[in-house]
Amino acid sequence: MITTAKRLDIIEEYYFSSKLREVRQLASEGKPIINMGIGSPDLQPSQAVVDAVVLAMQEESAHQYQSYQGLPELRKGMADFYQNNFQVALNPNTEILPLMGSKEGIMHISLAFLNEGDHVLIPNPGYPTYTSVTNLVGAVPVYYDLKEANNWEPDFEALEKLDLSKVKIMWIGYPHMPTGARGSLQLFEKLVAFAKKHQLLLVNDNPYSFVLNDNPMSLLQVEGAKEVALELNSLSKTFNMAGWRVGMVLGNAACIDAVLKVKSNMDSGMFYGIQKGAIEALKSDKTWFESMNVIYRKRRILTEQLAEKLGCKVYKEGVGLFVWAKLPDGITSAEHFIDDILYNKSIFITPGTIFGSNGEGYIRFALCVKEEKVQEAINRF
User: E strands along 167-273, which residues?
Assistant: First the structure.
């Protein structure tokens, strides 16, 4: 009998991996499932992006191994994107590393900087992968509270009371997933100062900046941020390229070099055609974001109506790809609440508990469902 590694004893299968099997089974049984759970954009990339990939297929080097650092013109495109949209200047040769999706960057960064027993500050609620990757590399998750009363931002007095002597990395993500809290440059300034004071690596996970957000921000806009910070970003949500797996890590040059040491031992470069498509996507101007947000705004209005139909209170200040809502008084389990809706109304909604204990009492809707389907969901009640 071959036993699994002990590291698997302290992690579980990713929630959506297991839950979507159940959802697919219900669909195969003829249930008219409306999936409002997962943030996988159903909209298409621009035609220019698709055309760039098709054209790239005919190039002589298209099917060879590619550079671990990506094409120079891809890094240049990422640098231009940050300059044009965030007014952040980055050296494309030393301060940018393309990734196969930003999710892999969480693992690469953790492998590059964490030793067994190191501590990691993780937001509660927050993206579950921060915890699972921390456990996989043998480090110790230390959760810090985000609460609605504080607009889903850290309480710095509470942070200072934690034992920070072993903390190596602090994960943040604004606009925040799952709540949609915007954050602010003032918050980023406090976080950079906190990271410098305690000599830790601050990492901002930033894939939602351009979805229903009139003020996109980057942690790297803060003066001195590059001394202690990295930022992850992705083309998945911004350009409807989730399945393409194109992301990036940007910031401190020495840290980027450390991440490259890990990455170069884990893959053999991103497919040439995808890189060419990504280069084209990064050239998109504000009309692209505006056209996407016209669609998402209509969906959000309807989704808020659905949430209110369920007796929930919507977090109206939220931006990004999700609607975050507080359950009615008296509901003691978000998971029981969403399962009841799944089995009786064939609608899948995400329980807030998968993002941490502070997610209890909340649910999350993804804006990745066409308007007519959201209306259908409303009509089922």
Answer: 167-172, 201-205, 229-234, 247-251
